Amino acid sequence: MKLGDVSREEASRYMGVKGEPDEQIRALLERYEPIVRERMRPAYVYRELRAEHTAEGVSFPDIGLLLPGEDIRRHLSGCGRAVLFAATLSAEADKLIRQAQVEGMAEAMAVDALCSAAIEQVCDRAEKEIFSAVEAPYRTWRYSPGYGDLPIDVQKDVLKALNAQRRIGLTVTESCLLIPSKSVTAVIGISDSPPEGQRRKGCAGCSLRESCAFSKLGGCGRK
Predict the structure, then answer these.
(1) What confidence category does residue 2 fall into, taking pLDDT thresholds of 50, 70 and 90?
(2) Please, which pLDDT band fits residue 205 given cuts at 50, 70 and 90?
(3) If phi over 0 gives left and psi between -120 and 50 gives alpha, with beta otherwise, what is residue 169?
(4) pLDDT in tens, 149-204
(5) 8-216 classified as CATH 3.40.109.40
(6) Measured distance CA(161)–CA(145) in Å, rounded
(7) Average pLDDT, the chain
(8) What residues are paired with 207 via a beta bridge?
């Protein structure tokens, strides 16, 4: 997969800009956007799985994985199948951010923000490609560990289920941070009728909205 144009508008929002960015930020984003687009080596991996609802959460019995919590159970209500996937920009993102730090804090912030916008693009494109191959009359939006009451520590089990380290070089630290850092794991429910249990996207549906810095800036991208 090759990146298309990375949204500078989205990147400026990740930088904390409200409204139109100033001339300095525009110049930084214009300078680094083509570099990000050229340097990244995005990749993704996925599995379609049978889903079962339990009192503890949602179970994927074919791989022995449980996603615990009431929020994920509600989100996947009515879904008998799901797609588990992981995506990454590759280690090039972390390298480029470190290189930009040598030039200055503003440069590093611009690269970091562009990479954040880029991984969202990769996830959107991956989802489109996945569901061109996987039959899904209806599907939920993607739901990631750490969102709502789904614990972040399920990252380890998700990566193991996807064999993500071998297939796309994606690992997780003891503190459950993904390496490379510009990476995402998520689950998307599949149902035969319109899902009714999932909360609407955005800050209004997230239990962390009161403490989230992005919420104060207008949202984290879960639109």
Answers:
(1) confident
(2) very low
(3) left
(4) 999 999 999 999 999 999 999 999 999 999 999 999 999 999 998 876 555 555 44
(5) yes
(6) 14
(7) 89
(8) none
pLDDT score, position 119: 97
Q: Is 96 exposed, middle or buried (0-12, 13-18, 19+ CB in 10 A)?
A: buried
- Residue 175, CB-side half-sphere exposure with 13 Å CA sphere: 2
Write down the domain spans for the chain: 8-216
Distances in whole angstroms, Cα of residue 110 to Cα of each of 11, 27, 32, 213: 7, 10, 7, 18
CB-count exposure of residue 212 (10 Å: 0-12, 13-18, 19+): middle
Round to whole Å and give the CA distance between 170 and 87: 8
